Amino acid sequence: MNLSILVPLLVSVITAATPLLLAATGELVVERAGVLNLGVEGMMLVGAICAFAAMFITGSPILAMLAGAAAGAVLSALFGVLVLTLASNQVATGLALTLFGLGLSALMGANFVGHPIVPLAKLAIPGLSSLPVIGPLLFSHDALVYLSVLMTGAVGWFLNHTRGGLILRGVGESDTSAHSIGHDVIRIRYYAVLFGGAMAGLGGAYLSLAYTPMWVEGMTAGRGWIALALVVFAAWRPWRVLAGAYLFGGVTVLQLYAQGSGFVLVPTQFLTMLPYLATIVVLTLMSSGSVRSRLAAPACLGKPFRPVS
Amino acid sequence: MRLKVEPRRQVSKPLQYATPPLSVLGTVVAAFVLFAIMGYDPLRALYDLFVAPLGNVQGLSELALKASPLVMIGVGLAAGFRANVWNIGAEGQLMMGAIAGGGVALAFYGREGWWILPLMSLAAVAGGMAWAAVPAFLKTRFGVSEILVSLMLTYVAEQFLSYLVLGPWKDPEGMNFPQSRMFSDSALLPVLFDGTRVHAGVLVSLLVVVVAWVVMSRSILGFEIRTVGLAPAAARYAGFSQTRVVWLTLLATGGLAGLAGLFEVAGPIGQLIPKITPGYGFTAIIVAFLGRLHPLGILLAGLVMALSYIGADQAQVDMGLPNAATGLVQAMLLFFLLASDFLVRYRVRLVRPAATSEPAPAQKATA
Fold first, then answer.
1. Were A131 and a residue from A135, A174, A217, B319 both cysteine, which residue would form a disulfide, CB within 3.0 to 4.6 Å?
2. What residues form the membrane-spanning segments (chain B) (predicted)?
């Protein structure tokens, strides 16, 4: 294949993967702490509209990204109060959060439909960006693309090589043991949940600021749920989330290219189904492939915890 | 003095009944604040949302019409939730039911006969069940999360429906609109009261409530479902099969959702179109919780949620309140319910601080 086709293709895989990577990396930390937040889709949507609104009003991309992250974190704080402080059912509360985010973002975004913004700028790195092939492929992206990869690395380092990461994993594996040696389980889980919310908000922000720089109701189109599936796919390991996100980015791009290519053998609706069907297939392969992946799930995932005081 | 929180030995029955109405009240207050912040007249919005539709026969009949699918799906979902089976793809199962049943209607287009509607209903139940069978199979065979699979299939069903009404099932005389032919008279549900849209499906949903109530509270099967959810170890010891319960609850919900989907297309809509539901499959999740997972409670909860749908239309026409406000109000209601569950399971008391500072033992809460 010609390089002039291949490079843009791979670049679009990277952009399609970035929102998934941001949200899934955040959710991975949440789940490693033993909390299942099914509200990723809702947090992404509210992150998307808040980032878009901030960009539209202030024109500052930095403020826009911060707004997206903050919006996701605020929503996750709401989830935290219910699930951590009030020990509510995590599955039901996560669903409620997604429904809440759908409604809230649609309401907030009603006045922003159809408005254009300046898309997130590509950061040129002197020397590197002008290299042939590698330049456009690796060094001509916007800040959120770099941030998504950096955060994945940072999370991997934090979980496996720091004391804080060890404690967080301990809280997820055995909340009662962590509590009995003096760790504040609830507080640590709050930190994890807030981090997950901010990352989901950034994932949403990427969609409305860079991927398709506009606001459309429900524009995440299930990406929050795919991010949740990616965490399972990755067996709760950061670097495998990276691989998974790029794989799904590839599926998305493949489907878009097939739709745009003109000679359509399959109706477009069937191509649009692809990422969702791929998610099901991948989940099935992961769950049936080996017992290892099931053992990888944090032991306390989804179980409510309340210290008796 | 400080607050002391301790788990109750047994859930508080009076509070269990009191919290749903309290949650509705909390939601009304929260919605008041929210609408005020957003610059809408909050009193007028709340009046439109919750009171205005009750004032006339038209509103009441629409209430029955919209509550019917919510109740049918909610009853099925509740059985699943009791057994810890989280089917959140009822929306997709609803669409597949509508497609299967609608397909029968289109296949016999122009034909007459009493048998067409029953055949459509069977196809709709089968369609919904087939869509729910996928997560059931993957969960019981490979241990795949039914949450993600059932939800992903909703997106697939949506695309499939869109393909059909834009492609092979498009109305040849429809000026290229994405819609099927209008169903023949024999394929439309009979209207119960002249001048309204209340159809025979509403009666079926009432029947579903009664049957579900008998099954869940008076039969061994209902006991089995509740035991698997509450005490999986005890259920295994008693010889109850978790696999069976997963299959049963998913198939039941899928079938009911499929039927509810058919009642939409063979009732008020009268043809297949790309969007046949305003999110009934998702709202039914809230209905199931608001009804405390009890069929009779779900009937009441379905009416409350249907009210918010009709009220939203009213508020949109009357004061330009975006339709999304309904979803927001509905989700807030679920938040209030889940939060109030805390009071059902825990006792909160004011106590004097203890003199000793012994380390507190940890205890798992039972969800």
1. A135
2. 21-43, 63-81, 93-109, 115-138, 147-166, 198-216, 245-263, 324-344
